[in-house]
Amino acid sequence: MSGIAGILRRDGRDVDPTSLERMARALVHRGPDGVATWTGGPVGLVHLALRTLPEDPPGAGPLLDDAAGLVLVFDGRVDDREALRAALAAAGERPRDGSDAELLLRAFAAWGEEAPARVVGDWAAALWDSRRRRLLLARDAMGARPLFRAEAGGALYFASEPAAILDALGTVPRANEGVVAEALLQNLVTVDETLFEGILRVLPAEVVVVDDAGLRRRIAWEPAVVEPREGNEEENAARFASILREAIRDRLRSVAPVVLEVSGGLDSSSVAVVAADLARRGAVPCPSLHALSLRYPGLDCDETRYFRAVTSAAGLAALEVDAGDPGPDEVLAPVRLHRLPPEFPPSAAWGPALGAVRERGVRVRLGGEGGDEWLDFAPEACADLLLAGRFGELRRRTRDLGGPGSGVFGAYAVRPLLPVWMRRAARSFRRPTPLPPWISPELASRTSLLDRVRVDPSRGRWATFEQAALWRSARCGAALDSLEESERQAARVGQVVRSPLSDRRLVEFALSLPLSQRSADGESKRVLRRALGGLLPDTVRGRRDKAEFSSLIHRAVQRAGGAARFDGPVLRDTGWVREEALRAAAREVPATYDPGDGKSRRLCGTLWTALALDMWYQAIFCRR
Prior knowledge:
With 624 residues, the chain is an alpha+beta fold. It folds into 4 domains: 2-177 and 192-219, Aminohydrolase, N-terminal nucleophile (Ntn) domain (Glutamine Phosphoribosylpyrophosphate, subunit 1, domain 1); 233-374 and 478-541, HUPs (Rossmann fold, 3-Layer(aba) Sandwich), CATH 3.40.50; 381-474, no CATH class; 550-622, no CATH class. It contains 28 helices and 19 strands. Strand 14 (289-295), helix 9 (304-314) and strand 15 (318-322) form a beta-alpha-beta unit.
C-alpha cells in the first residue's frame, strides 16, 4: 500500500515540478519506503511507497511500459491473482514480474476502461496513456483505498488525500456548506462531495476518464442482482465460510507481522478465529499474527472478557492496550496534517494501540468492518414481507423495530412501495420535517438541506427492497467518510487496514441470501454464526448485544470543556449554527453520562460534530 497523486494540464502546458513536490510533501507520511515523482509534458505523477506485499518492488516509482506508452501509479493489493493471470494470458498479456501493480497495468492494457471490473482487491490507481493522451482514475469496487480529484486553472489534480490537492492548488477552496449542513444534521448522505467545494471523491468502482474530449465518469462494477431464495442453510453457511476464508487469506499476504483487531464482537472475533485457523494449517502468507484489543476500564463498552475468550480459543498471541484519551494537541494533530476535522472519539481511542503495534513492526491490520453493513437486517425488508403477504413475520419485525404508534410500519413497509408521485403528494400534505434548532435556517435554505438528505426508498435495479437498502447504506457519505478516516489513521503510523467482511465476493454472496439466513428469531448475522460454529467460542457466538461507545464521545466533549466550551464562540461568523441553541443543547447533557439515555447520546453526537467542525474551520480558514 502507499499513496498516489498527480496533475494533468488539460491546456497542454508542462506540469510544474514544484506543484508535484508540494503534493508529495503533503503525503510524505504515506511513503516510509520512498517517494518518487515522474513528469511527461502535461502530466505529472507522484508515488509514495509503503511496502506490505512480498511481491512489491523496493522503493517508490511509477510503473512504466514504454512500448505501450503507459504509466501507472498504484496504491493497493490485487486478490485472486491466479485467475487474473489466466485471464490476462488468454488476452495475450504476459506480466513482466509478479507485482500487483504490474498485474493491474497489464489489465488496463488488455481491457482498458473495463479493467477495474475484472480486478478484485483493495486498490486505487491512475493510468496515463500517452498515445491516446488519456488519463484514467479508478478505485476498487468496495472503496477500500481512497482517491480524490479536483479541477482548477486548466488542470486536473488527484491524490489519496485532499491535503495534497490543497497544497498543489496553493489556495483553500470555500467550505462546502452542503456537506457541513449534512454533518450538523448527523446525516451524511452525499457521496461524491467533500468538505471543500470542488474537491470530489472518485467513488468506489468508479472510472474517471479525462482526454481531449473532456471528462466522463462511469461505475465499472456493481453486484449481480439475484433473487434471494430459501436454499439449504447449512450449504449456504459452508459456502459463506469458504469465501470468508479466501478473503482473509488474501488479506494476510504481508512481508511484516499482521495484527488482528479484536473488539470481542462477533465480526472482528470471526475474522480472528478464521485467521488463526489458517495459521494452524500453515496457510498464512505473513511472518506472524497477533491479536490486539482496547481496554476501557470502568466503562460499559469494555469487552476484554470476550477478547480473552477469543484469543484463548484461537491460541493467538494477545496484546491489550488501554484506550487513549487524546489531549488538545493530539486531537488537532490530524487536523493539521490531513486538513480535515478531528477523528471521531471512538476512532481516536486507538491511537496508543496503533503506536504499540508499530513498534513491533506491524504494517497490516485486519478488522471486522463490513459485518454490520452486509450481514444484518435492514428495516426495509418489511416492504418485501408486505409485498409477499408474510404478515405474521411482518408483524414480528415491526414490533421489534418499534411497535404500534412508532411509525415503523409506514416508513419501512408502506413508503418504499409507493410510486414517486404518491410520495411527493404525501409530502405536500405533511408539515415540513422540523430541523434541529441549532442548524441555521439560512444554511438549511441555502443548501436545500432536506432535499439533500431525502433518500429514495425504491428498490431500483435490485430484486428486493432490503438489498437496495443495504447497498444504499453502505454507499452513503457517512459510510465512505468512516472508511477514509480509518484509512488515514492507519497511514499516519505506516499501516494499512484490510477488511475481509467487505470483500466484494463476500458482499455479492451475502446480498443473495434470504432474510431468514441473515436475521431470524432475534438472532442477527445468522449466516456468520452458522459458518463459524466450530471456531467461535460460545460466549461470543451467542452474543445478542453490542458494545455502545457513545460514552467516549461524551468524554471527548467534556474534555473539550463541556457546556462551558459552548459559552464561547463555536462556528461563529460562519452562519451555520444558532449558537444559543447549541448552548442549550450542551446544558442538557449532564456531566455524569447515562449511555442508556438516547437523547443524551444524540446530543453528544451533535456537540462533538459542532466542536470538530469548529476546530477544522479555525485551523483551515482562520489560521488560528
